[in-house]
């Protein structure tokens, strides 16, 4: 039987109000510009809508389990992130992600890209909730949320969400542990 | 963000649309300058604003004056270039086409220089449809609403893809809808843009029928409006039900976006929309390209400038574009330009004998009309690169080389008050729906400003912009035999654009939409210049679409 130690968890997550997304792609552009052209926000068509694909920061992240290079980790703040210099760009995390938000081509925008100096070859992009901004200011929000002009993206505490009249649909993992079901 | 680029932070505002969103410019560092969205939610910054930081020191920036010699560009000293431009102009008049999105001080200074040189004429370049729209709203007397005002409105009429023109204006609409789920959101957009998705009532109107749709809607709302026969393809019933939905509003907002190539009745549309807003107790919000279009229109009577139509009719004159990509904006090909002042290479610099380095608006502080008609003075983000001149200084340099005297100091901008404009005549002939099918329309995108000559040089835009996207109605896609993401060739005469298909359910059959920022697409819209009326009108074009099956097109 697989047992897991208690993992640190993040308080807030990025959610999208699908009734407000005007498809401006500001979130994708902000991520692209702010992360040295290695965007972690892509887009996918859903009927009439073109909606952003953003990492759900899973409670049991399959990308971490799948990574052979231990590049995907959950850090001490609870953020599932990719360690740049360990990533070999193999794409295992993209294959493992049950939500398709890690990909080498997010909505047509290259997600696997060379670092600006071409020093470390190919890497997979991964959302880190703009940890640099969160560290600088406790009230700060990730770039995608800050850039969203229509208010579609929010950075919310799940525990407070219901109190705010927000119904969050869609989970943070396919299961408690992706492989446990097998 | 990488720590090495975070060595300096400047707070500023984006001036690429009237929203005037706040932004942080960080740099210069190892990664150069970059724009950052606000740290806290509630403001937003669309891809245009996010491009500004990169543009300040982008690798493709024009930093030296050049002249064309045997088909190649050769560097030349600025003063020498000015003298050569004057010599090349000879006895011809010189028309300076200056970008109307620049701060007011730049336009006034350019005007002062042109007054001192008798051969010089100034033409302030605005998107033709937007200029007409603003003249119409000025004549109507309607109040201008800012994005913040929209949340206090109880009904919305959206003409064109206003949410793409200014994504920030959608927040007020959605905030109101969150408070009142039954709020009316009426959309008239033949191009089926992003605003159509949120319509509670969508008025089906072919391109060119926007005026007839508003007139029908106004009559249904109990507002006196001239009778205009609805063109074929217009859904009169939906216009009437939209009018009834807005009739009960106490403060409706009419949000207008005048896209290029949609026909010629924009002054009438602005006027009628303004009158409708006045009658119902609301206001208008014009989502223009550039923050200063309204200011440029209001400066008009103070300037000794000629209209764009008159300038284009002067084929014998030497043309000098300063800050504006005239040829790209109007889709003109094969016209020689004497000189072009620009920050980046564009259609005008390609056609110019001389190219001068020009500062972009963000590097020039000055007066703007933001958020409705709020007059604000913005600081420059930073000085332009060494050797790069402000647009008015380029005109000054050339005028001085021609022997013009120094002009008197330009007066302060002062209050930019509403213009007194005669009401346009509205008749049945104003509504001209395009007949041939498929009809090409241009749709605005949040990614690029204007004809894209500036923002297209940013990294994100250049990554996602090729190949461009073409919106097709499902019926047309079936007829052609293509599906989402397939490549097609859009052809109009000798012109063609390879584009990736995006099937849009909000689009009526027979309509084809290419990005407004695409100069090749602008060239496909027939341009009519009416010197007598002072109008420049770009109409929807007729195109052929065929699937591109060859490998080269698939991987373009």
Q: Structural class of the helix and strand makeup of chain A?
A: alpha+beta
User: How many separate structural domains of chain A?
Assistant: 1
Counted up, domains of chain B total 4
- Percent of residues of chain B in helical segments? 25-40%
Instruction: Please give the CATH architecture of chain A.
Output: 2-Layer Sandwich
Overall mean pLDDT score of chain A?
A: 80
CATH class of chain A: Alpha Beta
Shape of chain B: globular
A few lines on this structure:
The complex is a heterodimer of chains A (182) and B (556). Chain A is of the alpha+beta class. Chain A is built from six helices and ten strands.
How would you sum up this structure, described in words?
- The complex is a heterodimer of chains A (182) and B (556).
- Chain A is 19% helix and 20% strand.
- In chain A, the strands form five sheets. A two-stranded antiparallel sheet of chain A has the order 1-10.
- Chain A has helices spanning 26-34, 62-66, 92-96, 131-136, 143-147, 158-161; strands at residues 12-16, 42-46, 49-53, 72-74, 80-82, 105-106, 109-110, 112-114, 122-124, 153-157.
- Chain A has one domain: Alpha-Beta Plaits.
- With 556 residues, chain B is of the alpha/beta class.
- In chain B, strands 5-4-16-15-14-6-7 form a seven-stranded mixed sheet. Chain B has a seven-stranded mixed sheet with strand order 26-19-23-20-22-21-27.
- Chain B is globular.
- At the A-B interface, helix 1, strand 7, helix 4, helix 5 and strand 10 of A face strand 3, helix 1, helix 7 and helix 16 of B.
């Amino acid at each position: 039987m697989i047992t897991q130690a208690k993992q640190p968890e993040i308080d807030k997550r990025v959610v999208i109000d699908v009734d407000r997304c005007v498809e401006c792609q500001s979130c994708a552009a902000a991520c692209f510009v702010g992360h040295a052209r290695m965007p972690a926000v892509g887009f996918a068509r859903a009927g009439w809508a073109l909606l952003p694909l953003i990492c759900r920061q899973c409670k049991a992240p399959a990308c971490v389990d799948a990574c052979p290079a231990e590049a995907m980790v959950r850090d001490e703040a609870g953020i599932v992130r990719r360690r740049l210099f360990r990533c070999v760009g193999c794409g295992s995390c993209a294959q493992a992600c049950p939500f398709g938000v890690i990909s080498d081509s997010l909505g047509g925008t290259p997600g696997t890209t060379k670092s600006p100096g071409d020093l470390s070859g190919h890497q997979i992009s991964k959302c880190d909730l703009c940890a640099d901004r969160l560290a600088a200011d406790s009230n700060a929000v990730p770039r995608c949320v800050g850039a969203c002009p229509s208010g579609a993206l929010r950075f919310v505490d799940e525990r407070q969400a219901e109190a705010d009249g927000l119904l969050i649909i869609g989970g943070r993992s396919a299961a408690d542990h992706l492989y446990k079901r097998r | 963000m990488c720590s090495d680029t975070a060595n300096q932070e400047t707070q500023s505002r984006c001036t690429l649309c009237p929203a005037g969103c706040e932004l942080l410019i960080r740099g210069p560092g190892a990664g150069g300058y970059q724009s950052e969205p606000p740290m806290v939610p509630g403001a937003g910054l669309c891809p245009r604003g996010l491009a500004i930081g990169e543009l300040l020191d982008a690798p493709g920036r024009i930093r030296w004056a050049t002249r064309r010699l045997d088909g190649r560009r050769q560097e030349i000293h600025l003063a020498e270039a000015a003298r050569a431009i004057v010599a090349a102009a000879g006895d011809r008049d010189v028309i300076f086409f200056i970008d109307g999105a620049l701060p007011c001080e730049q336009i006034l200074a350019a005007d002062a220089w042109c007054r001192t040189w008798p051969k010089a004429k100034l033409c302030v370049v605005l998107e033709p449809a937007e200029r007409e729209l603003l003249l119409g709203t000025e004549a109507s007397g309607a109040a201008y609403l800012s994005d913040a005002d929209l949340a206090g409105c109880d009904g919305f009429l959206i003409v064109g893809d206003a949410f793409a023109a200014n994504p920030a204006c959608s927040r007020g609409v959605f905030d109101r809808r969150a408070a009142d789920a039954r709020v009316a959101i009426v959309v008239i957009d033949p191009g089926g843009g992003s605003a159509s998705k949120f319509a509670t009532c969508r008025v089906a109107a072919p391109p060119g029928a926007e005026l007839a749709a508003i007139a029908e809607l106004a009559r249904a709302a109990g507002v006196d409006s001239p009778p205009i026969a609805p063109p074929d393809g217009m859904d009169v019933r939906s216009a009437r039900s939209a009018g009834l939905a807005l009739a009960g509003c106490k403060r409706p907002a009419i949000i207008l976006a005048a896209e290029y190539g949609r026909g010629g009745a924009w002054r009438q549309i602005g006027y009628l929309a303004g009158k409708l807003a006045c009658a119902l107790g609301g206001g208008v919000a014009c989502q223009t390209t550039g923050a200063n279009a309204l200011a440029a229109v209001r400066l008009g009577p103070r300037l000794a400038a000629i209209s764009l139509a008159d300038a284009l009719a002067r084929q014998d004159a030497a043309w000098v574009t300063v800050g504006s990509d005239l040829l790209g904006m109007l889709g003109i090909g094969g016209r020689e330009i004497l000189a072009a002042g620009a920050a980046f290479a564009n259609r005008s610099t390609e056609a110019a004998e001389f190219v001068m380095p020009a500062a972009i608006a963000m590097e020039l502080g000055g007066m703007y009309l933001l958020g409705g008609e709020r007059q604000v003075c913005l600081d420059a983000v930073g000085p332009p690169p060494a050797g790069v001149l402000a647009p008015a200084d380029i005109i000054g340099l050339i005028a001085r080389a021609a022997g013009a005297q120094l002009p008197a100091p330009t007066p302060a901008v002062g209050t930019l008050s509403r213009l007194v404009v005669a009401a346009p005549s509205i008749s049945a002939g104003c509504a001209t729906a395009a007949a041939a099918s498929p009809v090409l329309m241009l749709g605005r995108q949040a990614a690029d400003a204007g004809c894209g000559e500036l923002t297209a040089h940013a990294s994100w835009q250049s990554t996602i912009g090729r190949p461009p996207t073409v919106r097709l109605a499902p019926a047309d896609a079936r007829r052609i035999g293509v599906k989402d993401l397939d490549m097609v060739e859009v052809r109009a005469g000798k012109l063609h654009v390879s584009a990736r298909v995006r099937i849009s359910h909000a689009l009526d059959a027979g309509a084809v939409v290419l990005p407004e920022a695409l100069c090749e697409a602008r060239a496909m819209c027939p341009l009519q210049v009416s010197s007598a009326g002072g109008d420049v009108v770009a109409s929807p074009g007729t195109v052929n679409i065929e699937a591109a099956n060859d490998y080269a097109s698939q991987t373009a």
